Amino acid sequence: MKRLFYPLAVAALLGFFAILVNYSNESVIRIDQSAAELLGGRVLLDGMSFIGDPWMIITVSLLLLVYLWVFRKNYRGMLFVFFSVGLGNVLNQLMKEWFERPRPESPHDLESFSFPSNHAMVGLLYLFTVAYFLSEASASRKSKVIIWALAVALAVTVALSRVAGGEHYFSDVAAGSLLGYAWFVGVAVWYEIRERQFRNKAKTQKEEEFLD
Question: How far apart are alpha carbons 56 and 43 in whole angstroms?
Fold first, then answer.
């Protein structure tokens, strides 16, 4: 992972906390209202919400786990998926219950709380996790760019679809996306440190065997 992503993750985390402490302020409320007026009722955008639905996230994550297990023998990669998507979802649900922000009035009559958006946060996490391993397996720089561009576009689309459908405020999906990105980078940093440690250990063992 490029070092540029580290300060971006810190900035994203600060952005999340900025929204957290200010989402009841008048300025944020006006932004939420403007976003709802701009995006509300856009049927095509609303329909894209399925990409961040639980069944989609579970299905794709399981397929990724099978790929990492059977074809890559990458067991730390499987832990990456668990930490990123699984624990990310747990964190999201805990925060919803902690902050208890009511959802906007919508015809969907959802009973869960609103902040931060699960579709925005966990949707980003599973899309970015898939992109991470697909781009890692690709040797072409062009294909890496395409994979990540598609992941970012889908994550943004999923987040905005929740505003279009009236299930969330814009501040909910912005906070979910920011926190999701920060969590993803944190997991990726852990994974890459462990990978380097494993490679260095394996290299040292080979050198010792050679000397013996």
Answer: 20
**For the segment 151-174, what is each residue's pLDDT rounded down to a tens digit?**
999 999 999 999 999 899 999 999
Measured CA distances, 159 to 6, 38, 152, 169, 194 (Å): 22, 14, 11, 10, 31
Spatial contact of 155 and 212, defined as CB atoms under 8 Å apart: no
CB-count exposure of residue 103 (10 Å: 0-12, 13-18, 19+): buried
Integer Cα distance of 23 and 25 in angstroms: 5
Contact 81, 64 (CB under 8 A): yes
Q: At what angle do helices 118-137 and 54-66 cross, to 10 degrees?
A: 20
Exposure class string for 129-161: b at 16+ Cβ within 10 A, else e: bbbbbbbeeeeeeeebeebbeebeebbebbbbb
What pLDDT, on a 0 to 100 scale, did the predictor assign at position 109? 65
> Mean pLDDT score of the chain, rounded to an integer?
90
Helices (H), 103-167: 118-137, 141-164
Helices 88-99 and 170-211 pack at an angle, to 10 degrees, of: 150
**What digits encode the pLDDT tens for the residues 33-82?**
999 999 988 899 999 999 999 999 999 999 999 999 999 899 999 999 99
9 C-beta neighbours (distance < 10 Å), count: 20
